[in-house]
């Protein structure tokens, strides 16, 4: 029987084109109508885990990192200033008169209500961010929750992120100032510890050295900063075991939030393709629902059944609404606080999606130090020797990591060229 000539000669397709569109292919049809099975599956080892972040995400570059870091610094600097103004501005109960020239003052101390407004605003901004992201990628509208499997880790992240700050605020009444600032300087340690213990992640040796240098530098800079008399008086008190436990829970919840978020982004084969905008919307919707439920349910529970730190906030929602009715001007600061936090979250989730939780925590840990450094330079003050040593350690750690990353990329590029020869 004569050999039939092939109608279409065999063509070589560049491997880059195959991999570029591999995610969208489920089946492939041949010329005779038969259906062939796909060659690769996303669940197959290296392909499923080849990209650290979401499948289809653009490669992260230095320019994106600079934009994300600048956005986080700018947003949360404004956020911190507004938070301080909200919580430390005295609001007089009635106008001053001749008989009472200095009327009693009250303060806005409703952290759960503030967190609720924050998460509600962030869910709205996240929805706009998600719509914009979908339109830029020219894809169909994606919901905030791509699969049922992702609900459990999302709820865990929402719980830990909502409860971390209340535990931190509560610990301030039971620990000295030095212990508090030192603990806040060590946020990188629980993040790395949880990555290693929970998710069996391993880091190269230089990563451990970078974390040690940054943590030591921030701690040294913070404790070397001149302390106000009020904080010095507070520092004289002794830390209690209860206060240290609250502070430990705060650090644990912060670490869990970041590591679980990182785990979701790096496990597309388990949870499906998930983006930063989707996580921002989903996490804040769940957080809003949880904090509203807390505010509505706690007044119905006998105080004796509540933990000590929650007994003073059983009527927080009613008290906050009454406060806003007496002092409507504070509402503008609350809305500005929520808006700055929501915009800052856009950059936070963009950083998480494109980079890692360890880098994100490095940015947030060094933010306060760099803010203090800029303040010192702006007002012509001088740094103490301890502060200069802290700055040197931080920049040595960050610079060393950058050099190691560039060397690693160069080795990978050379290995790739050698393989293609």
UniProtKB/TrEMBL annotation:
This is UDP-galactose transporter homolog 1. It holds the Pfam family UAA. GO terms for cellular component: endoplasmic reticulum membrane; Golgi membrane. InterPro entries: EmrE-like, SCL35B1-4/HUT1. Belongs to the nucleotide-sugar transporter family. SLC35B subfamily. PANTHER family: SOLUTE CARRIER FAMILY 35 MEMBER B, SOLUTE CARRIER FAMILY 35 MEMBER B1. It is a multi-pass membrane protein. The chain crosses the membrane at residues 60-82, 112-132, 144-165, 177-196, 208-228, 240-260, 281-301, 330-351, 358-380, 386-404. It comes from Endocarpon pusillum. GO terms for molecular function: UDP-galactose transmembrane transporter activity; UDP-glucose transmembrane transporter activity. It is found in: Endoplasmic reticulum membrane. Keywords: Endoplasmic reticulum, Membrane, Sugar transport, Transmembrane, Transmembrane helix, Transport.
